[in-house]
Amino acid sequence: MAILTASNLSKRYGVEPVLRGVTFSVEPEEKVALIGRNGSGKTTLLRLLAGLDEPDGGDVARVRWARVGYLEQIPAGPADVDVFSHALSGAADVQALEIRLRELEARMASPDVHDDPDRLADVMAEYSQVRHHFEHAGGFTLEARARSVLSGLGFLESGMKKPLAALSGGWRVRTELARALLAEPDLLLLDEPTNHLDLAATEWLEEYLQSFPGAAVIVSHDRRLLDAVTSRTLELEGGLVTAFPGPYSIYAALKAQQIEQQAEAYYRRQEEVEKLQAYIRRYRAGNRATQAKSREKRLARLTSTPIEPPKGPQVMRVVARAVPPSGRTVVRLQAVMKRYGEAVVFSGIDLEIYRGERVGLVGANGTGKTTLLKMLAGLEPPSAGDVTSGTGLRARYFAQESATALQDDHTVLDEILDGHPVTPEQARTYLGRFLFNGEQVFKHVGMLSGGERQRLNLAKLLLDQPNFLLLDEPTNHLDIPSREALEAALLEFPGTLVIATHDRYLLERLATRMLTVESGRLVDFHGTYDEMKAKRSRDAQRAGRKARRAAPGDGDRSRERPPKSRRPTFEEIATQIAAAEQELADAGRLMADPELYRDGERTKMTRARYEEAQRRLEALYQLLASVEAGDR
Question: Which segments does the entry list as coiled coil (predicted)?
């Protein structure tokens, strides 16, 4: 039985229809991708599925027992609570069970209940039921899991204590994502969950969703995540939803095949129409008039239902233009250090980039990737050391947020004409490749969406014919077709490229050398992103095996404690977690025994044992998250 069914949904805003006759269903545990161009109505559809908005027509049916979790792109909510408390509130039902357990424990310890066998039996019966539900819902490990989820999404312990009001929009979205995951709903609706996530957090989320036991509908431009998590793809186009089997890569192949088949059928039909028309014109009045009349009837039947030529999605047609070559060494960094005030961003950086290289730049948010790109582009001086540009270099830097590079009071056309030797007609033709058509070229920059700003900034940058491109998150705000058009252009770009991005699909297609910013240092790997990940995984496995071989034996009491410098392995921590969970469960069972409450001292000791096991479990989950982050 489907967990959710959308039947003939329609929705319009003003006179514009956004959805018309949308019908599909989602099975329990099924992970579904919902894709479509920016502005196609994906968020509108998710809000209808979540029950936050009402459709103009049709209905959404969910099974009665289903709990629904929804992550919106721009979350709203309380600002006066801290991150940890807000994340925990996603599991409000579990928290309510714990409060009831404490109330019942207090009642069992009170003389008026404890000395009355009938009342004690009633309270114990309720306590047993509540505790069973609490344990089944993961209540004993809730806070530990909350810390693990928040840590996986990039929060440090100090960050978990911050009020929501102090967070940027990106960190607020991460908090809401943690809250949605901790609710453990039966159906999860995610609207661009990887926006604002760095690579480590994105990969953590991918692994989480792969093991998530419920169903999910995921709107995302992250093709790598969709391929790893989803098993079916829903395409929203022209207000209608079409279902395709398989994840995004299979959808893309099937969609291309569908367009090709439609084109072939259309042109075959057109060819037949033209042949019939030619025959009729030639023989209408001759000795073959009867045959011509017959062909007129056939032509009428053929054209009675007009067929439009197939149209693929409108995408940017970015063309990589010829560029003057630079010298062999594009840029050289020697003993570079960068600081802002007392904070050191980098130190001891040595790096050479050569002509024609395609370099991927990765690292956690806030580690200094943007600063490094600006130094490579000559826009940011080092605090110490030397940055030397090669001969004939024409570097252009693409900012992560394009607003700083554009003037709001300019039109789109003004931005291209300003400083570029092109005529208005040439500029309009060029802008058409970036989806600015007709009257759109007269639209003021201040009225553009995030994706439109990205496209305009790219248009300006490529028009300058650079031979060294430095791109900082160029796919932000771009939908999948536009990302693929950009990828195609960058693959043809004849110059040198350094690109900082969280888009693993893009990295794997473009980069043949990887730079990773870690703790103020630069790790240089000559190979693709996937090759780098595979090497790190092998290194972590070897380190784990080495640590296990070095672990003390039962008879070697002098080596019971590992050296302080040795980092605990995943397997060691997992073993300790299992032991702590067992201790927590044992203490919980003792607390369910009514005889416990006859002895006040024993009650305190058991309660302390329970709380200590809970604290130890939380600490172990934090340690596990840090080890996983280090392995990444």
Answer: 570-630
